[in-house]
Write a structure and sequence with these properties.
With 396 residues, this protein is an alpha/beta fold. The protein is 37% helix and 19% strand. Strand 10 and strand 11 (222-226) form a beta hairpin. Helix 1 packs across helix 3, helix 10 (284-292) crosses helix 11 and helix 11 (296-320) crosses helix 13 (337-344). The chain is globular.
Amino acid sequence: MNILVINCGSSSLKYQLISMDKELVLAKGLVERIGNEGSILTQKVEGGATYVNKVQMKDHKDAIKYVLEALTFGNTKVIQSLSEINAVGHRVVHGGESFKQSVVIDSKVKSILNDCIKLAPLHNPANIIGIEACEALLPQVPMIAVFDTAFHQTLPDYSYIYPLPYELYTEYGIRKYGFHGTSHKYVSEKAAAFLNKDITKLKMITCHLGNGASITALDGGRSIETSMGFTPLEGIAMGTRSGSIDPAIITYIQKEYNISIKEVENILNNKSGILGISGVSSDFRDVEKASKEGNARAKLALNVFYYKVKKFIGSYAFVLGGLDCLVFTAGLGENSAETREAICSNLEHFGIKIDPSLNQVRGKEAIISSSDSKVKVLVIPTNEELMIAKETMLLI
């Protein structure tokens, strides 16, 4: 069975074609600058060369047409015909409270997705465009929506309700939703399997650390707390996002600088976090390099990040009432030994102790905790596309 996984952005499209028999990625690619000058499709074929097609793509339907051609024609062909695509799994950022799990897409589902645009105005429109483009080009193929928010629908009400007038929740849906759910679900299941443990018996914290970052507390495989909230802006400091701050800062900035709320949102989402403090970059590799070269602001930015992550781990361990397993994933979590070491330092009293030699691992599953650590500390590379494919296969 072959599953095509589609992840649409406003002007980009990431995709993978996965053979589920052996969970083998037949091809994966990226389409950039859709609707703009210089559109480009880059596809990597498993065990083969990289294919690049520079062709003007006016919209997502155009882009998906070229993706399907790349999969079925020329030196990048991995299937004989489109009939070998058994289903399409779509990453959808926001399902609101309507979807607690992945669903087969129909007109009712699309109507609800449109209603959720107000909750994810940057993401859901692109996701819907991708769905409709695939429906037009693959009319007989089942379409599945896999939601970033669905995994966190198990949060208890006292976790997801904000201390605001209650009608803001009932009338406008203002509550914690959480994001990166597909990643947290994937790595938690992989961690349990790697440890040969029953996930329903584990208390676990998963740390998805990249340019966007979130932390989730899982009790028996269910999300009971997560750091991102109503939007992905809440939580720890990230590459360009501020994370949680005193909300009065927003109105203070607006008044002092005499700027619009849109400009304040731009500051908080695109000019803050590690970039804002360091003044160097939102890329942790650049900031780590600058810190080692003596840049004080770069060092401060990293220390702020480590401190914020450590605070969430500590509070979540108490929320869980204990901790069996701590997992690091995503670009930074999987590849930066320095980050993992800094976050876990001085947590020995709470049963978290990593082995410096085992910690020198990049991008592969590994236990990095010492033999006398009460808490197992793991590195588990995330694979959101495979998780989407698995969810899709279950539904068809």
